[in-house]
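Meet our chain:
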Amino acid sequence: MTERATTCTTSGVPLTDSGSTSFPCPGCGTAIGRSPRSRNQGVLYKCPSCSFQGP
């Protein structure tokens, strides 16, 4: 299992809010972090390792 992300991959804010999440990249397994704001607004993220892009 991959490590948990500590910051949002898109905005860089710390993942301290209850609505934040961390999951493995579907492309390579690197930890992706999402803040509640990025998730709610549907901001695209890009994996820093393999450039996989998702909503």
